[in-house]
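ASSEMBLY PREDICTION REQUEST
Request ID: AP-0331
Submitted by: J.K., bench scientist
Number of chains: two
Total residues: 653
Priority: normal
Notes: Please return the full assembly, not individual chains.
Input sequences:
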Amino acid sequence: MKRFSRWMNEVLPPKWVINVWVVAFLVLWMTPHLLAWTYGLTALELKEDMQFQKMVNLCLGLFAFTYAAFRVFCFHPVFNPRYMKWLSQTPWTYGKPLPNGPLLLVPQDAVVVGIMTLLHWLISPVNWAMTPAVFLTAHAVLIGLTLFYSRQFLQAYLLIFWFSGFLYVYQSTVLTGLLMVALSLVALWGIRDTLRSFHDWSSEKLGNNPFLQLNSEKAKEIQREKLLGWPYDRTGPIQASPNISLRWSAAIASLVGWWVFSVLFNFPIDPRTSYGFFMAILWCGSWIPTIICLSGYSSPISWWGRVRTGRWFIPGYDKVFLSPIVVTSVLILSMIIVGLFPEIYPVTMGLTTTACIFLSFLLTPDLTEWRLTGNHRIVAGVGFGQQNELQQTQ
Amino acid sequence: MIRVENVTQHYSVRPVLTDISLTISKGIRTAVIGPNGMGKTTFLSVLAGVLSPQRGYVEIDGIRRRSSVENELAIRRKAVFLPDRCYLPKMRTGREFLLGVGRLYQIDELRLFDHAQRLFRLFNLTELADSPISNYSAGQQKKISLASALITEAEILLLDEPFSGGLDPAGILALRRVLARMKEERDCTIVFTAPVPELVAENADRLLVIRDGRIAVDGTIEELLAEAGTDGSVEQLLNERIFPESEQNVAEYFAGGVA
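STATUS: Completed
Returned structure:
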């Protein structure tokens, strides 16, 4: 028994969490019997009551989700900077057991989820499969989030892409189960690669990300350097700006377009009620990269000056407006297509979304290049969110 | 060396700079003076790469500003621009601010700590070094912003109105001497603006007067002294060139019967 207990302790949450689970299970198990005794019904009648089943599903689903979250947040070094820092300084390599406990799913998880499922079946035998389903889905999704940190973009992308599959197969228990298993396999593939390349990405993250710094002073230093005020924030010799490659622009645009198509295909909406909403979101979204470029970098001459001097067009500056202009054209074209062929609304909207996002990435100038070589006027002042921190001299 | 070629700039309709071309050699202190609103700050902004002119271009040590990311970063490493008005991080201490700027310019850490301490002594800020900048007076804030430009160890200093902003006499004296020794000992190129000629006569090797967007006067102190002759001074000559109507305005004001 002691050996079993020690074996299980590798993955079990703290005792107080288990106690809460036990009490909640007992309450849920006793409720139908108490209600039956009070109102003179049979326990079976109550167990088949829809409202009762919903409550049981919600509670037990929450427990399964809590366990999945615990397994990811407490065992993954990404969420524990001290653990990550310490681990990066040890000779630990992939294949050896992780000191804080296993990150990959292990037989103990099957025991815990199996017990939860059994209890679910005892309380409400109708939806007992929901417990393992919630656990596996939550685990895959949470792992998917960590894959962005550890640079396993392919697996993260696949997880988000295949997650849309639920929209197509949610009515079939077998297909939903198969999809869940597929998602879990992708998540496990991602964790394996994450652990294999741990020393590569962890050193980079620890070096660059102030939130992952064990040494708080170092983190503060990094923050300080980012907030030096005018003119150093905009005229200093370091201008590292985020940049998204063409390949990833296409991949992200396709993914969002696919999701839009999937939602509209599986839950048809009248184009007349939803089209304006989609258009507004896409049009406003196309301005985001432009606004980022324009923030702190204004036109070299005023708009009135352009009118008066006849210099309507300044190529080195006006190139930032190319993306919203082209996106607007795409939206007008899409509006015509939706008007002519409302039956292919999901396809039109999916393609429109993909085109708009891709064109926004493609046509907006590279931020570093724009800031350093654009034909603009760098505006003195403070950026968003810095007003409280900076003060003007004189 | 700084080369300005056919620079023209207008924000709206009125040209602020018109077809300005000149070359500033290495190790020369150049003062840009002129009346308010006549283009001094715009000229310095063009040199600093803050402003992309409508026509013309600026080259620093043979590299054209804003021609490519690599070129612009190379220029930024060797030239620092200090505007008339800075935004300082008020919650940070003066020392934190200086160290942050030094690190931005990738100065060696040990040298940086030592340099920051010497700058605090230079500007009489030692006691305030570890106080938040919000506790500094206007003059002390001007001093810390000047110190931030010096801590970059840049070869080219582009300073907009460095003598204004509430500097006390000790601060003005310190800055004058620092600019002189930066030139003598480090061969730094310094371009600074000033509203009045009195401040610059002793601090500049070359004077530029910008008036109505054009260079009205361009010469070394010696050349201007020669032009002024034995009867006048450089200050008097510059006042006549920069503010030719001042005397007449004053005379007209009192002729109007002002008590």
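REVIEWER COMMENTS: The first strand of chain A starts at residue 297 and ends at 298.
SIGN-OFF: pending second reviewer
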